Amino acid sequence: MVRAGGEGGGEFDRLAAFLKSGIKAVKDTEPKDTTLMLHLAEGGNYETFKWWFDEITARNVEYDTIGISYYPYWHGTLDDLETNMNNISKRYGKDVIVVETAYGHTTGNADAKENAFGQEEAATAGYPATPKGQHNFMQDLVTSIQQVPNKKGTGFFYWEPLWNNGKVSWATTAGMNYLGVTDEPGNEWDNQAIFDFNGNALDAVKIFGTPNAGAQTNYAKNPSFESGGSSGTPADWTKWTASGTTSTAVKTEADALDGNYKLSFWDSKAYEASVYQQLTGLQNGTYKLSAWVKSGGTHTTSEIYTKNGSTQLKQTIPGVASDWTKITLDNVKVTDGKIEIGIYNKAQANAWLNVDHIKLQKK
Could you give the C-alpha distances from 84 to 68, 123, 232, 359, in angstroms and in order? Predict the structure, then answer.
């Protein structure tokens, strides 16, 4: 992919003309409600998507949905994918869909052709190359798609569930001879099918037939600050301000990532404030707390935290002003059925922090 300007700046002009011609052909020959999708690879690279779709949008190319290729061993972590999906869906007002994904159930090979997925790819992605590891990746992927704000994550396509026995080649021998290509017949994706080499269905097939297969309970109450948002004071959250800090230093405002409201910290003078909630009746175990944030200015201390008795965990909030960024506090232990979660911010005058889409989920 060539960055704009690399060949005089006309690449996107030519590409836009090409895309518009194709779109016109679709409209002239297909039903009027046919969805128009533009599809990029590198699903965990938000900067690439922003660069490309900004250029395409500036040239008035029409489309309905953004398609994403995402393979966890090539395209970054699931957090990277979520950052991309959340920001592009909001930036362009479009649905997003993962139109290519896969994961190996083994590092074995059904034929002589070298596979795309092996031990190195499994180590990079962090899921074991087993039927259970494949299933768990797919479940986590579905969870990531389902969490896209405003229900703009619409689903996924698997590439390719049936290439399981090594007998389906990328190309025929006759075709390769015609093209002058020398290659090993076979298929480099056979160990990423959702059937084993004998044709038996694997655990991952269940993801396709179960509604909300990746859904996880969010134990945070009013996680996107919608309830009470219009009043400036979100329901289920307790607000604390230090002596000398005005009560309006923390409130709900519009222009949110998810829904209509976000939590906003700001004051015209130095301030210190927090928002928190006490959760009870939880199952004991290990949880993770995540939030989406943006901030600017000078912050002395800015963090999400959990507190359970004398045990407190903290995660510093980075100073990222332009786009929503996910932060995660992992390995949160619940031992007595309760925990406090919150956001704390101590900052200089005019420093600001926005928070939205908070989740506390059991691991």
Answer: 10, 23, 29, 18
* Structure tokens, 16: 């836009």
Question: For residue 204, how many other CB atoms are within 10 A of its CB?
Answer: 26
216-236 burial, b at 16+ Cβ within 10 Å, e below that, comes to bebbbbbbbbbeebeeeebee
Q: CA 247 → CA 128, 139, 267, distances in Å?
A: 50, 42, 10
Q: What stretch of H or E contains 37?
A: strand 37-40
pTM of the model: 0.87
- The 3-class SS string of the chain reads CCCCCCCCCCHHHHHHHHHHHHHHHHHHHCCCCCCCEEEECCCCCHHHHHHHHHHHHHCCCCCCEEEEECCCCCCCCHHHHHHHHHHHHHHHCCEEEEEECCCCCCCCCCCCCCCCCCHHHHHHHCCCCCHHHHHHHHHHHHHHHHCCHHHCEEEECCCCCCCCCCCCCCCCHHHHHHHCCCCCCCCCCHHHCCECCCCCECHHHHHHHCCCCCCCCCCCCCCCCCCCHHHCCCCCCEEEECCCCCHHHEEEECCCCCCCCEEEEECCCCEEEEEEEEECCCCCEEEEEEEEEEEECCEEEEEEEEEECCEEEEEECCCCCCCCEEEEEEEEEECCCCEEEEEEEEECCCCEEEEEEEEEEEC
Q: What is the DSSP letter of 310?
A: T
pLDDT (tens digit per residue) in 92-131 = 999 999 999 999 999 999 988 899 999 999 999 999 999 9
Domains recognised in the chain with CATH numbers: 11-209 (3.20.20.80), 229-362 (2.60.120.260)
Mean pLDDT of 296-317: 95
